[in-house]
Amino acid sequence: MGPVRDWAARHGAEVVATERPGHGRELAQRALDAGIELIVAVGGDGTMNEIASVLCGNPATFGLIPCGSGNGLARQLGIHGSLTHALDLLRVGRTAVIDSGLADGHPFFTVAGLGFEAELAARFNRLKKRGFLRYLTTGTDLWRGYECGDYTIQHPGGSETVRAFTVAVANAAQYGNDALIAPGARLDDGLINLTALPPVRWWHGPGLLQRMFAGTLSLDPRVRLQAGPRFVVERPQPGLLHTDGETHAAGTRVEFTVRPASLRIRVPA
User: Count of CB atoms within 10 A of residue 64's CB?
Assistant: First the structure.
């Protein structure tokens, strides 16, 4: 936080540290009520989600200094990189307007999902030390005993039931770390993108992973890809839902919707 505090002192900005889960929302609301025009999150996807959630539909602009494990939203917007680059964008960048999503009423800006990715998020969030390597090792441990589920997906073209390893609904193209779960997804098209991955066995798991990082999941006929303004996903049992990596209890029916042009954010000029 030292360089951020130094930058803030030079530019007349105030830095306030969050103290507990949900505190970011309180601080963002306080800044919004005070008429602050640029409100910045310094942290990972959880901090980003808390503060951006408050700013949706409001005139204030969101600034993002990514310091997390994945930083999917920042990477897609070109904010990810050096700390100096992200801080400079607060002064010399432009303001863009992007979409956001709602999953069972919870805001998300990068990806929300059910199945394996929600269970993995819950495990990952319990770790004291995080990072991309820990994410991979935790995911591998979970995968060894993971049971896939049946999901009925209502999409713009109709309805279908699939057996899936994970069901992701994306506003951005990637989870983070350039893992493209929804290749071709855009942040400003008024749509969200659903990706249902088939059961992952050891003999085709590496190929799926390679396609994800290459942005070619659409070339695998077993992968279901849909785009639209709304999806409803039903499953036999209640379970976890994640939004930008934060987990929530959810029922058997989960609705995902897009909120077009709902967040003003600083991006590279």
Answer: 26
The whole-angstrom separation of Cα 126 and Cα 119 is 11
**Rounded percentage of the chain residues whose pLDDT exceeds 70:** 100
Give the pair of three-digit tokens for residue 196: 């249902």
d(CA 244, CA 76): 14
Helix, strand, coil percentages, rounded to 5, for the chain = 30, 35, 35
- Torsion of Cα atoms, 116 then 230 then 255 then 188, to 10°: 70
Residue 115 near residue 167, CB atoms below 8 Å: yes
Q: What is the CA radius of gyration of the chain?
A: 18
- 103 is written with which tokens? 């999953």
Q: Does position 1 have pLDDT exceeding 80, yes or no?
A: no
Three-state secondary-structure class, residue 150: strand
